[in-house]
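In the design runs reported in the main text, the only information available to the sequence generator was the tokenized backbone. The following block is the verbatim input for one such run; it is reproduced so that readers can re-run the procedure and compare outputs position by position.
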């Protein structure tokens, strides 16, 4: 049986894959109904509001990107009973559909998760609070000579 740490890591992975290619409904399924989501400064309270926010983001930001992928690094997870706090760095990259320009973002996920009973008679970890910090690419801040060398 997987440990709580493994289940939380799997939830983070499922979230990343779903954000990359799933529906707003699929993404919202990673959250409890009473969740709080801060997605780059856009606040959504409750799974229904999160679903609407993800649907808008998918249309405006994700769908124009080809090959979007998120990678997680150094997840730090602290479990205390049925609640956990977690942080993980992420990178997201792809290509702008119209111009083919590479897109590279990085940031931090900061989350509170809860393990609750689900109708099937078992328990499941989902996001209760989830903050997505979106940082600029390190390429955006590199010295001009370094940027030219990377092109």
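Verbatim output:
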């Amino acid at each position: 049986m997987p440990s709580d740490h493994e289940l939380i890591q799997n939830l983070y992975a499922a979230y990343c894959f779903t954000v990359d290619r799933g529906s707003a409904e699929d993404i919202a399924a990673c959250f409890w109904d009473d969740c709080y989501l801060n997605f780059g400064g856009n606040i959504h309270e409750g799974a229904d509001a999160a679903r609407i926010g993800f649907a808008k983001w998918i249309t405006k930001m994700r769908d124009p990107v080809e090959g979007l992928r998120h990678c997680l690094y150094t997840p730090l997870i602290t479990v205390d009973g049925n609640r956990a706090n977690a942080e993980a760095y992420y990178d997201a990259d792809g290509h702008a559909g119209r111009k083919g320009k590479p897109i590279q973002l990085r940031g931090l996920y900061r989350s509170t998760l809860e393990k609750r009973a689900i109708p099937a008679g078992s328990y499941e970890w989902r996001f209760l609070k989830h903050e997505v910090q979106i940082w600029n690419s390190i390429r955006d801040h590199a010295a001009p000579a370094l940027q030219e060398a990377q092109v």
